Amino acid sequence: NRKVVLNQRPQGEIKDGDLVIKQEPVRDLKDGEVLIKTLWLSLDPYMRPRMNDSKGYMDPIEIGAPIVGESVGRVVESKSPNYAVGDVVTSYSGWQEYSIIPGDAPMVYKVQDHGIPLQAYLGVAGMPGRTGYCGLVYVGKPKAGETVVVSAASGPVGTVVGQTAKQLGCRVVGVAGGEEKCRYVVEELGFDECVDYKAGNLEQDLKDACPNGIDVYFENVGGAVTRAVAKLLNSGSRVPICGYVSAYNAEDASKVETPFHVFGAMEDKPEHRFFLVTEWQDKHQEITAHLAEQIASGKIKYRETIAEGLDNAVDAFKGMLKGKNFGKQLVRVAE
Ligand code: NDP
């Protein structure tokens, strides 16, 4: 069993030797356990803060342990009545070719067939998609005619936020890095506008794209984008704080100006709070089915970037934190 483990905690950007590949035989199953072969691995920005020693909203990954992550896999052996050989499941099995889980482990779901590719259950029909949907609908509470801005607009979270907000009748403005991503967000995903924050004119471009100000800002990135957005927020606006990826490689997290600092310091503060997708865990199946149907019927479009094999996972992950991915970043581990 080959796995990517945390060899030492990265300082700033991930460097050679921080994450290494280890090989171990797969042990025999005990009663009640299930052996899963990983097919697809999801790479998600939140994995970077978990490599640090500080406790965030999740515990740090231990040195020597595989990097945590959700995957789609097939049951290849089962000593649990809950799973049969051949079942396809999503589980938090980490960056490894095989994993053993107890048959009653939480957060493991059998994939229902909605006629969409399996790996979509790690992206727009998976955890990032549910994050975008729930954060927008339940925290952002957008109303028809309002202006919704979402950063990291071409990624799986932003993709679902923007297309859902369009369906709700909002004016939708994306923020993304580079002309190609912005063109895709408008032409393919149907956003009204998309601002390229790398083009050098962020504040003015955002102002031009939001002539009526901003009512909902779905926060994915932090940094300069957050500061530009803050100037345009209308009274009574809502800011679901989903993440702030621009700070994830910071050497000293305590020195980062977070979205909480920026929005909390405003005189007319927006309603802002950090949320976790797991707040709506009881709606997991319902929202997954909704998103999968939207994908199957072409109402939600998306892109993905695929790295081949576990050996390329680390480079793909480093690239994603710099925006080298275009759409959901995945690793194809096995056919
Ligand atoms: P993406 O696939 O969108 O990948 C991250 C993107 O962030 C990059 O592609 C890049 O896009 C952008 N980015 C990187 N660095 C910067 C920077 N310095 N300034 C601005 N943008 C930057 O990721 P996801 O859709 O999977 O996740 C989006 C956000 O959602 C993340 O913050 C993540 O942590 C959060 N999240 C939160 C969850 C929760 O429960 N709260 C659950 C899941 C995700 P570009 O090229 O456009 O800059």
Automatic annotation (TrEMBL):
Any GO MF annotation of the entry: oxidoreductase activity, acting on the CH-CH group of donors, NAD or NADP as acceptor
**Pfam families, alphabetized:** ADH_N_2, ADH_zinc_N
Q: Can you say what this protein is called?
A: NADP-dependent oxidoreductase
- The keyword Oxidoreductase is annotated on this UniProt entry: yes
Q: Does the keyword DNA damage apply?
A: no
- Stretches assigned to the Enoyl reductase (ER) domain: 17-331
UniProt cross-references to InterPro entries, sorted A to Z: ADH-like_C, ADH_N_2, ER, GroES-like_sf, MDR_fam, NAD(P)-bd_dom_sf
Q: Which UniProt keywords apply?
A: Oxidoreductase
The highest taxon in the source lineage is Bacteria
Cited SMART domains? PKS_ER
